Amino acid sequence: MVGVPAPLTIENIRDAPKVLLHDHLDGGLRPATVVELADAIDYRSLPTRDPDELAGWFLGAAHSGSLERYLETFGHTVAVMQTAEALRRVATECAEDLAADGVVYAEVRFAPELHVERDLDLDQVVETVLEGFRTGAERAAAAGRPIRIGCLLTAMRHAARSREIAELAVRYRDVGVVGFDIAGAEKGYPPTRHLDAFEYVRQQNAHVTIHAGEAFGLPSIWEAIQWCGADRLGHGVRIVDDIAVGSDKTAKLGRLAAYVRDTRIPLEMCPTSNVHTGAAPSLADHPIGLLAKLRFRVTVNTDNRLMSGCSMTSEMAALAETFGYGWVDLGWFTVNAMKSAFIGFDERLALINEVIKPAYAALQA
């Protein structure tokens, strides 16, 4: 007898296993934590000290249609993440919050160079964040919500410390760091400015993901892949500029789009954030619909949970409502992400076969 699929409720989506590849540590703080950390260091620049009002302020400021304006909101979160205590707490809460949202594997990124304004050096910053992730994962497991967290170290596009951060990523790759990234405003700061960092990471057989094709177009994507050797594309929404859709709805892929699809380069898509930064006009018009239909290696991500007021559950639910997706589709996004993770093959396969596929099969029954 064929069973009835579970309804696509928020509760069921939250309970389903999810995989997150693109989430910023300094973009996911609890509003109350921001206030308490600000009080601890006498940081007086917050627009409000009420957690609910602060959450609304972040969302309103981020929903500007400008990536540059969106990035300005990080001035407050980074400012309160300058001590070991603060970094450890934020990382611990991050792991707990993601696990409570049903995330079974996450890669959380942050830029160590942004957290050395007080007495910490780069190594201490990384070690403290990794300690926080371990503590959060242990608490989540004790609560019956196991999660595995890998850390991505990000260098800032406009700065000149990318080689140093790349070496840091390689140095800590056996204790929790799984890859290297660059982030920041794309326009005027092409990834090729950091070729020595990318060459070093590849020579060390380590992994690279690059923010590309979010606020800037195809040249950013092309450079990230062909010059810098990106294993994944952070966002990558502008790959749609290389796809022509005819009046009969058939799609013709340009050479770059065809290369990205043919070689299965994962796209770390962040729908709500992309709408907020102006990378997509609306969720209904987000390229994820077309790219998923064309079977690109699409993954679903949060980007910045505080700034965009989102979670993996809300992202999946919004996509299901907007595009009519069901459990098969949500499971496909999840397997795509797990296949694309920067951990070892055996570990990825175990999570796919022992956790993800059985759970979605049960939901479809």
From TrEMBL:
GO terms for molecular function: 2'-deoxyadenosine deaminase activity; adenosine deaminase activity; zinc ion binding. Zn(2+) binds at residues 22, 24, 211, 303. Binds 1 zinc ion per subunit. Residues 17-357 form the Adenosine deaminase domain. It holds the Pfam family A_deaminase. It catalyses: 2'-deoxyadenosine + H2O + H(+) = 2'-deoxyinosine + NH4(+); adenosine + H2O + H(+) = inosine + NH4(+). One of its GO terms (cellular component) is cytosol. Its EC number is 3.5.4.4. The record marks 235 as: Important for catalytic activity. The active site is at 214 (proton donor). Substrate binds at residues 24, 26, 184. It comes from the Bacteria. Keywords: Hydrolase, Metal-binding, Nucleotide metabolism, Zinc. GO terms for biological process: adenosine catabolic process; hypoxanthine salvage; inosine biosynthetic process; nucleotide metabolic process; purine ribonucleoside monophosphate biosynthetic process. The keyword Metal-binding applies. It is an enzyme of class 3 (hydrolase). The keyword Hydrolase applies. Its cofactor is Zn(2+). Belongs to the metallo-dependent hydrolases superfamily. Adenosine and AMP deaminases family. Adenosine deaminase subfamily. Catalyzes the hydrolytic deamination of adenosine and 2-deoxyadenosine. This is Adenosine deaminase. It comes from Pseudonocardia asaccharolytica DSM 44247 = NBRC 16224. The gene is add.
